[in-house]
Amino acid sequence: MSDSNEKPRNDLYEERVSQAKVVRKIVFFCVIGFILIGTILLTSGYFYIKNALGPMNEENPQEVEVTIPIGSSASQIGTILEEEGLVRNGALFRYFVRYNNESGFQAGDYVLSTAMTMDEMIAALKDGRVIQEAELVFTVPEGLWLEDIAGIIAENTEHSVEEVMEVLNDREYIESLIHRYAMLTDEVLQEGIRYPLEGYLFPARYDFLEDNPPIKEIIETMLDRTEAEVDPFLAEVEDGEYTLHNILTLASIIEREAQHSEDRYLISGVLYNRLEQGMRLQVDPTVSYALGEHRYMTTYNDLEVDSPYNTYLYPGIPIGPIASPGSDSIRAAFQPEETDYVYFYARYNGEVIYNETYEGHNQTHQMYRDEWIEAESEE
């Protein structure tokens, strides 16, 4: 009996050993295959980028006249160069510019060559020998509501506020922008959003060659500036807890609450602390936006307004931005200062006072609330 039992056991052992050898061979060849594929992809990528950064035609160079309009972004310049046959990939030009932190491109007329590398092209584009005169110049300050920005556009062009707002609320147009801009998603079309592009029109000075450019050209120029601001942070968004829409919403709150750069980063830290601890943000500018009225102070009745923008009534980050944040506020929203504070109070004079406890915060509030009452009465 022992001999008959031993033989099946030996057969089973040998079968398992054989299977293990087969598995090891499969794993070995899979690893080798992955290594080969990875090597091929890396090598191909290297030569593709090297080729893309090099001259388009060094052996039989041709000179090409190029016009760079005033206010052109790196993305727009890349598109122009690609269309003129001076670079292989306009998007790669933009990423190359971002990676090397290049800036200072000048509007003007250039004669560029297909024998130039991308580095040489960038150097030439900083010369700006023939600067074009701007026919329209206007500035959008930080922290404005979209309605106010529409007013500035109307004041400086022949377009009416109603015409500007009609374009800004055109769902079909917004959907087309979502397909064109990586920073825009369907979040801007959520039910309850007041204006889809609120917070996405970058506050800055704008120069246009025409005295009355089309409304869409103005909007897209402003969107280009916002995209250039957020582009360096997109990788962080992909790995983070919050969407870009969420972060721009926080940036808009920071913009409305802080007057000084150092406060923006600290207020950002406070907002993130409140979110992490499950506390409501409870910031007054969101209530003003929910009401649709600019206010110095919010009353207890105001805090009850039923709106997804009201951070006293609803937890978490509001449904969307409440203003257009500037560069500093956007960076602060991405790079909050580490702090133990969970409360802050903005005084009328711009000073911000921080506290770790509600008791301390309430004392601060009682001490300085009359400043806002007096300011409101003088309006």
UniProtKB/TrEMBL annotation:
GO terms for molecular function: lytic endotransglycosylase activity. It is a single-pass membrane protein. It catalyses: a peptidoglycan chain = a peptidoglycan chain with N-acetyl-1,6-anhydromuramyl-[peptide] at the reducing end + a peptidoglycan chain with N-acetylglucosamine at the non-reducing end. It is found in: Cell membrane. The chain crosses the membrane at residues 26-49. The record marks E257 as: Important for catalytic activity. GO terms for biological process: cell wall organization; peptidoglycan biosynthetic process. Keywords: Cell membrane, Cell wall biogenesis/degradation, Lyase, Membrane, Transmembrane, Transmembrane helix. Its EC number is 4.2.2.29. InterPro entries: MLTG-like. One of its GO terms (cellular component) is plasma membrane. Belongs to the transglycosylase MltG family. PANTHER family: ENDOLYTIC MUREIN TRANSGLYCOSYLASE. Functions as a peptidoglycan terminase that cleaves nascent peptidoglycan strands endolytically to terminate their elongation. NCBIfam families: endolytic transglycosylase MltG. This is Endolytic murein transglycosylase.
